[in-house]
Amino acid sequence: xxxxxxxxxxxxxxxxxxxxxxxxxxxxxxxxxxxxxxxxxxxxxxxxxxxxxxxxxxxxxxxxxxxxxxxxxxxxxxxxxxxxxxxxxxxxxxxxxxxxxxxxxxxxxxxxxxxxxxxxxxxxxxxxxxxxxxxxxxxxxxxxxxxxxxxxxxxxxxxxxxxxxxxxxxxxxxxxxxxxxxxxxxxxxxxxxxxxxxxxxxxxxxxxxxxxxxxxxxxxxxxxxxxxxxxxxxxxxxxxxxxxxxxxxxxxxxxxxxxxxxxxxxxxxxxxxxxxxxxxxxxxxxxxxxxxxxxxxxxxxxxxxxxxxxxxxxxxxxxxxxxxxxxxxxxxxxxxxxxxxxxxxx
Amino acid sequence: xxxxxxxxxxxxxxxxxxxxxxxxxxxxxxxxxxxxxxxxxxxxxxxxxxxxxxxxxxxxxxxxxxxxxxxxxxxxxxxxxxxxxxxxxxxxxxxxxxxxxxxxxxxxxxxxxxxxxxxxxxxxxxxxxxxxxxxxxxxxxxxxxxxxxxxxxxxxxxxxxxxxxxxxxxxxxxxxxxxxxxxxxxxxxxxxxxxxxxxxxxxxxxxxxxxxxxxxxxxxxxxxxxxxxxxxxxxxxxxxxxxxxxxxxxxxxxxxxxxxxxxxxxxxxxxxxxxxxxxxxxxxxxxxxxxxxxxxxxxxxxxxxxxxxxxxxxxxxxxxxxxxxxxxxxxxxxxxxxxxxxxxxx
Lengths: 346, 346
Fold this sequence. Notes:
The structure is a homodimer.
Chain A: E1 5-9, H1 12-19, E2 31-35, E3 40-44, E4 57-61, H2 68-78, E5 83-87, H3 93-101, E6 105-109, H4 121-141, H5 151-166, E7 169-170, E8 175-178, E9 201-206, E10 208-210, E11 213-214, E12 217-222, H6 228-247, H7 255-267, E13 278-280, E14 287-291, E15 304-307, E16 310-313, E17 317-320, E18 323-327, E19 333-335, E20 344-345
Parallel strand pairs in A: 1-5, 3-4, 5-6, 12-20
Antiparallel strand pairs in A: 1-2, 2-3, 7-10, 8-9, 9-12, 10-11, 13-14, 15-18, 16-17, 18-19
Helix pairs in contact in A: 4-5, 6-7
């Protein structure tokens, strides 16, 4: 790397990845990491004085009145850095503006956190643990599901099980969606009013965050007298999902998986779904690599991503089957979410 | 407004405010609102098809492969809009870049959601309810606090009380900090290991989200034999906090409150604190107006903000007293968080 070039990371998970430094508010900018030749400088506010970080990074707490971009500018000048690569999808317009005002040349990068796309052994361990907890939570809560219950109640069981039972966290608010709500891929359970009835189809999509790393799983449950249409559709969806997982082995570019999965579903006359076939999982619930028709990511060992085709009949019902998988040393999919994929009939 | 000028809102709370449209993932970009002469267009992805929004807005779901900025560009062209004002602190570099590529002139604004700074009657009602729930939660949980308990356990009681007891949500992860942890203003309870002992000083800082609106409160609790130093410091801090709340009446610019509060504390030889004296509260936990030494905001009736001075002795203990207040029609502070501000001694 050009010795006059540095990197500026702003995404809170990039900061966490590079320095172990974690901030409190997920939706606010509270820290940056400036990566120079031989040092990493965490730039944050006084509220984080004394916060822990890795030994190869140093903490700079902005004085009252000192703006973060002033500190960044000063560190660049002191280290004869004239150009900063930055995360183009993360830095805000005003931040770019403030840095330019200080004479820093800015070079947008879309792959600046590229090393996050392949996981280390430790990262894989954390993700496996998150997946394992998710499996256990499904075992724990399914015996309590019965007609009359609301989606909200089941979501709260899931959350309590994760937090009280396993001292882990939610990766996101669980999506628990019954009947016509299950046809909305991003259904918002907390705002909904759905209730389980005899014959209901129930979609449960949730993730665990353990040691900062996420899992993601979706399973379907039928309550009582589930229609043949649902059962038959499920068989075909599961078949496509399993074949797509198997297809990882021979995949070079991840967009092939997206194309393959949709083609498999079309063979059985299942409708197309409007979301991606999958997404990378790690410190962020949705991160690189992308598993969609427009993905430019290649398959690599130790990537972790989901495979989650779905069938949606608006105003009727929907179903999705989602696994979190890792790519093994041999380039095959190893499924990390192991709760049975059969349609669970209660 | 120039008929060739539109506004683009991207902050998820701005989108919610303008259109009632809510998205699932707080840390991801899932929607924009384009405000043209006589219409508001919500631009989002297919996963939100059928999601609710106000009658004066319309929903545009991007087709697969259609980028949001393509849709924005097309709507601008169709409506002869050449310039878009945008939220400069929210839009990312790549979004600005994509819009510019489509020939749209962009005009950064820092006050684009300016009307959010003064609350309507309905908004005030929701905030009052959130504050009221917070007061009740403190009454509910304080009888259960005893030596041997961990910070995490108390944080979980607070959350369960809010969610199970009042069907409301957390505004943020509660900060429950004991003894030396209380000296860290943004202490991260979930990562900590603190435990209450006889003589402990306990800081509880939490907020409720009810009907989308936040509250924010901090109270201090002494367990058993609390030192005279703590009691005396508390009296002076409380005095400064109460006087600052009263000073709202005669305040013109909000930075005066920040200066006034620090001066009051200095009179009693209390150390200065490194955070602001307060922040606006609404759909976002931290929003305009700012109550800091560099605030440019003027006091206006029906603003809602916190007043929260603190005293921090690193590695020893810290204390903060925080109320959420609204500015009344007469320009005075009406304190919305009504749980007693005396040092609660258990």
